[in-house]
Amino acid sequence: MKRSIRFSLITGFFLVFFMLPAFSITNSEGQKLLQLAQDNSAFYETDFSANYTVVQEKPGEGKTITEAILYRRDKAGKWTILITGPAREKGKGYLQYDDNIWFFDPADRRFTFTSAKDKFQNTNANNSDFTPQHYARDYSIKSMEEVKLGNLDCVLFELTAKVENVTYPILKLWVTKDDGLVRKKEDYSLSGQKLRTTAVPSYQLVKTADRTYSIPVSMLIQDNLRGKKIEGKVQYEKTQITIKNPSFEKVSDTVYTKPYLEMMSSK
User: Chain centroid to CA 177: how far?
Assistant: First the structure.
């Protein structure tokens, strides 16, 4: 009887041992990976510009398409978005400087204050989705574990905000272990309700003289609060952002000013 119990304990030990993951990420490694994910979202050494296509899909209502050009100067905390299409939206724009975000409407030629949390052009994207993501600076790691996301080896982080001025107080991030790229993100309210899910299927590599940057090819955002029941099944609103022609060439200082948006709206 004792021998049988001892054998069962030994067998159980080896079963548990071999079920454990081969490697376990340490707190230090996790913090470094989260910092890398933050660094990959920012371009402090250079200007950045690209063409953005934002496709909003509302169940039962079809799609709307917005074309825009984004300019960023991350080291100065400045960015400009110029809407180039469709025709009825052309000339509208967004501008951030001195920690303020302004929206320009050429219809009345007025600037109105907006925020990083506000929706971009009434889509499921926020203004903050077009800016650097401060994962390591603004959030604390609540938990982390090594997981598979499809065929990608990732670390799943659960993050809680340690500052007030964030778009979402709780995040879940799937970050690839080898290159620190965010492949999936879930945004939560303070009560724990899932608000949005963002997938980043692939990245494009852009080489400069100093380094190689990883830019998403596209991002798909699902809004878990905005949906409609169709044929007995809830279908959520989705927004796909496609990024083309990324460039790290310096642009004129005037691009990050109100007069620039006013001038471009008249062309």
Answer: 18
